[in-house]
């Protein structure tokens, strides 16, 4: 299973837990459980709204903060790709999933230990259905885009969907606050 699969399973488990806590809080009339539901949804809302805003920002505004990240990622690739099996596995999974090569392109791997020892690039740099050995000439001719370009340019829809989800989360936040207020004013009939 990929790293993204584990992430999605963990996120689903967290959302399920938060939903159960909110439901039990209403059924058992426990204000602290409803408040915990509110805080969980608020955290998700803040993270999702931040990601949506970042994705939808114009490219010019994103490039300056990402330039430092670019330098660090490329240095990390050159230093660790071929040296660390965890790093190699993570990059290979990411490149296979996004159908991309490196941060900016195949050149990111040129000074890596992997290329120095094998004289070849990761197979993802030569595209799908290519030879298991990806040489410089083939990687250059295939021109597989870098992962940063794929993430920033092709995820505009995820930003729009993120804002739609934010709207639904705002409704959940308002309803949970209303329930919390009702639980404060509700007389303890059953207790």
- Sequence stretches where pLDDT stays below 50 over 5 or more residues: none
Strand content: under 5%
The overall pLDDT average reads 80
From the alpha carbons, calculate the radius of gyration and give it in angstroms.
Answer: 23 Å
Order of helices and strands: HHHHHHHH
Q: How many structurally independent domains?
A: 1
Largest sheet: none
Shape: elongated
How many individual β-strands? 0
Briefly note the structural class of the backbone: mainly alpha
Q: Helical stretch count?
A: 8
First-last Cα distance: 48 Å
Percentage of residues assigned to helices? over 70%
Please characterize this protein's 3D structure:
The chain has helices at residues 3-28, 31-56, 59-80, 85-98, 113-118, 136-142, 147-153, 156-185. The chain is mostly helical. It has one domain. The longest helix is centred in the last third of the chain and has 30 residues, at 156-185. It starts with a helix and ends in a 6-residue tail after the last helix. The mean pLDDT is 80.
Topology overview:
Blueprint: H1 3-28, H2 31-56, H3 59-80, H4 85-98, H5 113-118, H6 136-142, H7 147-153, H8 156-185
Helix pairs in contact: 1-2, 2-8
Question: How do you describe this structure in short?
Answer:
This protein has 191 residues and is an all-alpha fold. 72% of the residues lie in helices and 0% in strands. The chain has helices at residues 3-28, 31-56, 59-80, 85-98, 113-118, 136-142, 147-153, 156-185.
Name a few traits of the molecule.
single chain; 191 residues; mainly alpha; 8 helices; elongated
């Amino acid at each position: 299973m990929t790293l993204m699969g584990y992430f999605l399973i963990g996120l689903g488990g967290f959302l399920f837990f938060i939903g159960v806590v909110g439901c039990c809080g209403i059924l058992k009339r426990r204000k602290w459980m409803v408040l915990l539901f509110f805080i969980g949804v608020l955290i998700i809302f803040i993270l999702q709204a931040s990601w949506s805003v970042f994705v939808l920002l114009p490219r010019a505004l994103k490039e300056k903060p990402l330039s430092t990240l670019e330098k660090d990622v490329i240095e990390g690739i050159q230093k660790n790709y071929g040296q660390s099996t965890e790093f190699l596995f993570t990059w290979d999974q990411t490149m296979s999933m996004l159908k991309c090569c490196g941060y900016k392109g195949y050149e990111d791997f040129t000074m890596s230990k992997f290329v120095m020892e094998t004289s070849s690039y990761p197979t993802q740099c030569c595209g799908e259905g290519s030879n298991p050995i990806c040489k410089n000439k083939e990687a250059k001719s295939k021109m597989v885009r870098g992962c940063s370009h794929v993430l920033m340019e092709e995820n505009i829809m995820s930003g729009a969907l993120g804002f739609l989800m934010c709207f639904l989360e705002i409704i959940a936040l308002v309803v949970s606050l209303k329930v919390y207020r009702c639980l404060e004013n509700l007389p303890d009939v059953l207790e």
